[in-house]
Design a protein that fits this description.
Blueprint (H helix, E strand, L loop, with lengths): L9 H7 L9 E3 L2 E3 L2 H12 L4 E15 L7 E14 L5 E16 L2 H21 L93 H15 L6 H9 L8 H12 L5
Antiparallel strand pairs: 1-2, 3-4, 4-5
Length: 279
């Protein structure tokens, strides 16, 4: 019998308490997030190749439907529940976390690929939600209004001094995939972009000219029909918790990135996410 309970090493604790590197944080329409492969990389770095296990507790098909009768395009939704167990360096379990997530594959031409993508998305999201319980190195601070400043800093389980109120970081709002913000589709301020050109007036059906921007980003707001359809598509994605996967899904379904899409394509994508009949 072991003489002591399993515990993290001082090096592991010190690393977990560090603020997250900005190189690991991705930005999607103003929402900060981590990639699932990077979470696995960090688990290996902290706990070792055999220092953690990821178990799929359940993986359920929620919806399988053809986009339009006879279209041979598919939208699939899965729900996954995952358990993450982390171990001490001697192999004994330290703790475990469980969480769940849904994943969607939108308007895919191959049924098998649609199932694969939806399953992978659900499992990846569930794993990330489990790992965030390990603190700042796994994205906990990003829930504090996207901040990359450490929010844990110390733990009484490993050190005697508590975090003083004077040194604690301000608490911001968590990201809201349900779009609870007063602005139904807020656009983050541009980091370094040329001044926007005024949108020429004309018939509403004329699409806006393409503008330089980061891939998948929403073009500057304008009065055109295309912009209205684009805003509605992103609002539907936020309501479906699908903003992260929408750019890749859109490109796979229509053969070009979002910034080259048409108003009709935006409306079709919106209808797929809201469950409306495709136009």
């Amino acid at each position: 019998m072991s003489a002591s309970n399993p515990k993290l090493t001082d090096q592991q604790v010190g690393f977990l308490l560090q603020p997250i590197s900005s190189k690991r944080v991705r930005d999607l329409r103003g929402m900060s997030h981590l990639e699932a492969w990077d979470v696995r990389r960090q688990l290996i770095r902290v706990f070792g190749f055999d220092g953690f296990t990821v178990e799929t507790i359940s993986l359920d098909l929620v919806s399988e439907r053809e986009t339009q009768a006879g279209s041979n395009r598919w939208t699939i939704v899965y729900r996954a529940q995952v358990r993450l167990t982390v171990k001490a360096t001697d192999g004994r379990p330290l703790t475990l976390f469980e969480d769940a997530a849904a994943g969607q594959a939108l308007n895919q031409p191959k049924l098998g690929d649609a199932h694969d993508l939806a399953m992978k998305t659900a499992l990846s999201q569930a794993l990330k939600r489990c790992a965030v319980n390990l603190g700042d190195q796994f994205g906990l601070s990003l829930y504090n209004d996207g901040s990359q400043d450490a929010v844990v800093m110390r733990s009484l389980a490993y050190m005697g001094e508590p975090v003083q109120e004077s040194e604690d970081v301000p608490v911001g709002g968590e990201p809201s995939p349900q779009g609870e913000s007063p602005d139904p589709d807020p656009t983050p301020p541009p980091r370094s972009t040329p001044p926007q050109q005024s949108t020429p007036t004309g018939p509403a059906a004329v699409p806006d000219p393409p503008q330089q921007q980061r891939p998948g980003a929403m073009p500057p707001a304008g009065p055109s029909e295309r912009q209205t359809a684009l805003d509605a598509m992103w609002a539907a994605a936020r309501a479906a918790d699908f903003t992260e996967g929408l750019p890749a899904q859109f490109a796979g379904a229509f053969g070009h990135p979002i910034e080259q899409g048409t108003a009709a394509e935006f409306r079709q994508a919106r209808d797929l996410m809201t469950g409306s009949a495709a136009a």
